[in-house]
Amino acid sequence: MNQLLAGKKGIIFGALNSESIAWKVAELCHAQGAQIVLTNAPIAMRMGEINHLADAIQAPVISADATSLEDLNNLLDQSVEHFGGKIDFILHSIGMSVNVRKNRPYTDLNYDFLHKGWDVSAVSFHKLLQTAYQKDCISEWGSVLALSYMAAQRSFPDYNDMAENKAYLESIARSFGYHYGIKRNVRINTISQSPTLTTAGSGVKGFMGFLAFAEKMSPLGNATAEDCANYCIAMFSDLTKRVTMQNLYNDGGFSMMGVSQEVLDRYMEGGDE
């Protein structure tokens, strides 16, 4: 390891279990020399295994509902106190759709469910950034990332209202990226990751079909959770100081493809020449 993050301090949202992208990011940040604070919602902490990760990387765990301004204020204050100074990077890796969990089709959404999912998946990112901005608790040239998915740009039938949530999330990164950039040179980006076999991802109807199709469409194959963690490290490091307000595709080339020969061959089988 070349200690790309030596001396840096960061907060990781959303590490549920060892399948989580956030879990792998936290492990790699630690290996690259960073100090970490782990956080998740109280219910996720009860369901997950975050304390195992905390012990392994010697990180405190601070409970926070990312939709609560009170919780976010407490999280940032405690993190600054723990680190003895400002925060250098943050990963927002949280999202959920109650409509997906309840198997509500896109054409028959429950709007109370929609609002809850939108608040958790997207508005929480604005709340986090606004709270940090007002506290001025992110270091100059700090880096904030949120994890997105390509359904923000293209239609995936069973991704449901999460598609709108991700589109809103990406818009927040662009809008807040301007304001935080001119004030403190803080960069804000989203990473649009390949479908990845995590607890959250596998809850989407037809997910394994998404996974297989993307693998066949992508020249480099699907990006793994480990690949995403590596990308996050690069974005948290000083090597990417001028990258901001971007939605960055980490998907093996899927986002640029029309059709691959492998997919085309499959549908040509048994058909007319």
Mean pLDDT: 93
In spatial order, strands of the major sheet run 3-2-1-4-5-6-7
What is the overall shape?
Answer: globular
Structural class: alpha/beta
Total DSSP E strands: 7
What features would you describe in this structure?
- It is a single chain.
- This protein has about 270 residues and is α/β, with parallel strands linked by helices.
- The protein has one domain: Rossmann fold (3-Layer(aba) Sandwich).
- The protein is about 45% helix and about 15% strand.
- The chain has helices at about 20-30, 40-45, 50-55, 70-85, 100, 110-135, 160-185, 205-215, 225-235, 260-270, and strands at about 10-15, 35-40, 60-65, 85-90, 140-150, 185-195, 245-250.
- The chain has a 7-stranded parallel sheet, sandwiched between helices.
- The chain starts with 8 loop residues before the first strand and ends in a 5-residue tail after the last helix.
